[in-house]
Amino acid sequence: MDDLLDAAVRLVAIPSTADRPECLQKALDLVVDRAGPGFTVERFRSGGKPSALLYAPGRRPAFRAILNAHLDVVPAPAEQFRPVLRDGRLYGRGAQDMKVAALVMADVFRSVAREVPYPLGLQLVTDEEVGGYDGTGHQVQRGVTADFVVIGEQSGLQVVTESKGILQVRLHATGKAAHAAYPWLGDNAVLRLTAALGRVLDRYPVPAAEAWATTVTVARVETAGRAVNQVPADATAWLDIRFPAGDPALAGRDVAQIAAYLRDLAGVEVSVDSLGAPHHADPDSSEVRALRAAARDAGYPGGLLRKHGAADGRFYSARGVDAVIFGPGGDGQHGPDEYADLATVEPYRAALTTFLRSLQ
User: Fold this and answer.
1) Which of 10, 103, 187, 354 could share a disulfide with 294, CB 3.0–4.6 Å?
2) Are 165 and 231 a contacting pair, CB within 8 Å?
3) Burial (0-12, 13-18, 19+ Cβ within 10 Å), 152
4) Residue 153 known to be catalytic
């Protein structure tokens, strides 16, 4: 445990955000080294983002199982990259999401990859927080496949078999510029945009409590105009939309269909920047049952969980491969007090090891 904590402190201290390619590479190399020598390390690069795939020496197989971990983090103040150990917790950006889990996965891979009677892969990526298209998505496009994938995102040793899709769009409103003292001579694009946002939020109101429903977050509103004494002629809003598989207007639709639907709903122009489908794995599969049993053997209930956030499992789910999220505990993801619960680390290691050894 002391050795793992030392590695975790060093890894969390790396500010591996999307705008720091040298730090992404440094974090990736640290975890590759953690897995140890004697494995084939296949390197990938797409969109400037490095990733790696480790397996027993030889030609890349179709894997029975893959352990997947991302090493990038969302931006944070400098002090969050100075990790702190306190009261059984490791605080710092990425401690929970998901650098501690990545190190445990590397340790487990090192321990069991040569002994299990099937090909096991360790997949390390550095772009999950910005969409995953250049990491897991790129590797899947390059032919990486498996029967079952375990993603080490935080779950408190519960098994996540379903997560929402992700849709990021921009709403564009146009008007007519005029002097602010004579607003009747212009057409205020900001007012057009806020009316459009109102129509979208009327259809998808912010839930008062947790709900398995489509949510819309207005992340940013901007206009090109900078003068206060001018009626703005343009306005744009950036939206983050999360949707379950049960939303008939969004799930199973392509970019053009979604853009047309939102254009009709909002009454303004729409640009779809990214679309990721909901993820689903069979909760009754033999692998999910085995993973839940391994969690129970480690002292946890092994319950099923649905997650509102999207993860890289959707790239496998889209190819008919079951992928689940299964990780240690913690809290504060993407926040100022993010931490990993160190009491869950050894049970997590034990559960992963038991699961992998139980697979036929």
Assistant:
1) 354
2) no
3) buried
4) no
Under-70 pLDDT residues of the chain = none
- Fold for domain 165-276? Alpha-Beta Plaits (3.30.70)
Cis peptide bond prior to 98, omega within 30° of 0: yes
Active-site residue among 22, 128, 129, 162? 128
DSSP H stretches of helix in the chain: 2-12, 21-35, 100-112, 136-141, 189-203, 255-266, 286-297, 313-317, 345-358
Question: Which residues on adjacent β-strands are paired with residue 269?
Answer: 172
Written as one letter, the residue type at 288 is V
- Cβ contact 307:160 at 8 Å: yes
Instruction: Dump pLDDT digits (tens) for 287-306.
Output: 999 999 999 999 999 999 99
Structure tokens at 31: 């975890």
Count of Cβ atoms closer than 10 Å to residue 293 Cβ? 15
According to CATH, the superfamily of the domain at 2-163+278-358 is: Zn peptidases (3.40.630.10)
Q: Are 353 and 108 in contact (CB under 8 A)?
A: yes
φ, ψ at 77 (rounded to 5°): -60, 155
